[in-house]
Amino acid sequence: MLDEFIEVNKLDAEIISFLDETSVVEAQRHAKLEKSINISVLLFVTPERDTFLAVFPAEKLLDEEKLKALSGEEEMEEASSKDTSEWIGYKKGLLPPISIYGIKVFIDSSLKDKSMFCVVGPKDYLKLSFESILEANDEVVVEKITK
After folding, report:
1. So what's the architecture of 2-143 in CATH?
2. Where do the DSSP E strands lie in 1-147?
3. How confident is the model over 37-60, as pLDDT tens digits?
4. Structural domain boundaries in the chain
5. What pLDDT shows up at residue 6?
6. N or C: which end of the chain has fewer CB within 10 A?
């Protein structure tokens, strides 16, 4: 599904797969991702069941108050594992910042013009450019969303 999306949309992205489960540190070293930033991708839901993604450097803390202000929502929470699978089709913790239709994406401005990667499976990582996130999503907000 994700690999087809990348190919069809001609994105600057690739899935890097390993034979065995591989830690982030090992993946960085073996796949030459040292210059790429490890990102977190979280799905949030509002009481009205609106959803949006937050994309930010994994080593930073998300500023949920800033995210609320930017989204215009007074209340939000991270989506449950069940809701994430049912609504998005991906497992919680393995969300890509692309290939999810109709969802607004908030991306931390520190990622602008950077190469990134994230876990998308027990043995799989997604390497992608900032531009590919912009190209692959209909509504993207680039602002500082970390503390």
Report:
1. Alpha-Beta Complex (3.90)
2. 13-17, 37-45, 51-57, 77-78, 104-108, 115-121, 124-129, 140-143
3. 999 999 999 999 899 999 999 999
4. 2-143
5. 96
6. N
